[in-house]
Amino acid sequence: MGEERARATPAMTEARRRTHAARLLLRARASSGPVRERYENEVVRLHLDVALDLARRYHGRGLAADDLDQVACLGLVKAVRAFDATLGHDFLSFAVPTVRGELRRHFRDAGWVVRPPRSVQEAQAEVVVAEAELVQVLGRQPASDEIATHLGIAESLVRECQDAAGCFHPVSLDAPHPVQDTSPTSALGADDPAYASAEARVALQPLLEALDERERTMLRMRFFEHRTQAEIGAVVGLSQEQVSRSLAGLLARLRRALDAA
Prior knowledge:
Elements: H1 2-29, H2 33-46, H3 48-56, H4 65-82, H5 91-110, H6 118-138, H7 144-151, H8 155-163, H9 198-209, H10 213-223, H11 229-236, H12 240-260
InterPro entries: RNA_pol_sigma-70_dom (IPR014284), RNA_pol_sigma70 (IPR000943), RNA_pol_sigma70_r2 (IPR007627), RNA_pol_sigma70_r3 (IPR007624), RNA_pol_sigma70_r4 (IPR007630), RNA_pol_sigma_r2 (IPR013325), RNA_pol_sigma_r3/r4-like (IPR013324)
Pfam families: Sigma70_r2, Sigma70_r3, Sigma70_r4
GO molecular function: DNA binding; sigma factor activity
């Protein structure tokens, strides 16, 4: 007997709320100004738990829970203001789809980190649901053409939705690999330092080709092999002082040639 009473109480409470909401909405419909606003606010307070419960179903999907709660409450306010109580329909049957629509619109507009085309955004949720349903029916992962047939949409759109699966909450490039102890950024290339001197090498090439063998040897040993002037002199048969004067004159000649070019 106690269990039957416990089960009946929520149903009775819901019935009373439905009746009370209908009465408030009718009074709001027949009123205007602050009086109407007071009735509408009372209907909103009466159904806040419903809106917040709908918002909780979307928690943990990449958007702030507080933002989702606020969107759900705003959706409830829209439903209250748009509902026509004179038609005799149940308010919740109108409010729940309205709040859910506001939540989905918020995800569509604010939830994509990498934003695919609008057609993909709108169809992706349907593709995900259809894929789960077909897994149960077929006992295997459905192909893209099977999902397209099930939804009555183009197969190319289904493929785009599947490719965009990571756009809503992509994995960070700095996140560690699940198997290897590295992140994707560790495998990315860096700027080649040779790019900075590429233009200079192109400009110098014809000038260097015009030098004699000893001059090219001196430049190679000094600036590429980082040899001392004494070591260079021992190879080319000059004293250290002669190597110093020769290199200075050679560099000055190259600068003048570059300026002229």
